[in-house]
Automatic annotation (TrEMBL):
This is LacI family DNA-binding transcriptional regulator. SMART domains: HTH_LACI. SUPFAM superfamilies: lambda repressor-like DNA-binding domains, Periplasmic binding protein-like I. GO terms for molecular function: DNA-binding transcription factor activity; transcription cis-regulatory region binding. Keywords: DNA-binding, Transcription, Transcription regulation. Signal peptide: none annotated. CDD domains: HTH_LacI, PBP1_LacI_sugar_binding-like. Residues 11-65 form the HTH lacI-type domain. Residues 338-360 have a biased composition (Low complexity). Residues 334-360 are annotated as: Disordered.
Amino acid sequence: MPNGRAPARRVTIIDVAKHAGVSTTAVSKVLRNAYGASPEMQAKVRAAIDELGYRPSAAARGMRGQTYTIGVMLPDIRNPFFADVLDGVNAQLGGTDYQVLIASACNDEPAEAHVTDAMIDRNMDGVILIAPLTSRKRLERIARTVPTVVVGRHGNSAVYDTVADDDFTGAGLVVAHLAELGHQRIAHIEHDETDPVRLTEMPNAIRAVGYRHAMQAHGLGDFVDIASTTYTQHGGYLGAKQLLARPQRPTAIFAGADIVAMGVLDALTEAGLSVPGDISVAGYDNTTFAAFAPISLTTVDQAGHQIGVNAARLLLDRIADDSRPATQVKLSPRLVTRRSTAAPGGGAAAARTASQDPVL
């Protein structure tokens, strides 16, 4: 070694057994909370573990059947909504031996395949896949290999559990709110989607369908106006630029996600337009920054924390019994109104009226 020192040797179960004056079998029983470990034995072993700083080897535990690790795949680590989901996952796993390992697939299907393969190769006990782009066939192949919960996808499967928001209803809440304020030219920014299966399952596609349906239901079918970009801040910026270039620009923009709405606000500021005086803006997700006073974004609360709680609960159930019937959980969204929406042309007075932040 360059510094003349050999690397520190990892403390083993044999070291713990010698230090505690018990057999390695006894240490194993304590680590597994197995039957046959007396309180006195548990106390001796736990004390030895603390004194030696022993950490169980995940690889060795995997060879015995469990690694006590759960993989969570995110489509985009920059979207703050996923932090709410992770917070719920961690809350549900609190007090258990499970550790969460996170990877981002960057909204890329080949990258998703690489991430999920890596999770399987590392013998993770279960995986939570958030809004995966992966085909249904591949999702089911993953689920037959490792207990799996899919978040955000609306398609049902017999081999994996799902947790999703009622995106169709959530989009309708936004359109209804804007129509009640007097808007007709309500535009929508969607994530460009072409895969026929994902068009029936992905949350962004369901929200776009909900927007169209609600516009028709409110007699505004002739004013349907959609910009197809991406569910990113830059996508929101580009979508707003497209909409502002229309011969008749919208008086309200429903961004499909809060992160998209941030890009919309950037574009409107750049164009010298005020919110909501010139154009009202609404998002989806009710992320933390939506409530910040300078932003005060009207949005749909899809209970990201509760989505995470449900996903972790279902995964623990499936790890315990992978043969049980698949479960589908759908949460009901709520509209949170803030200062970013007001009557068309209402200016500052309307903005003050909309600033009460009620939850509908």
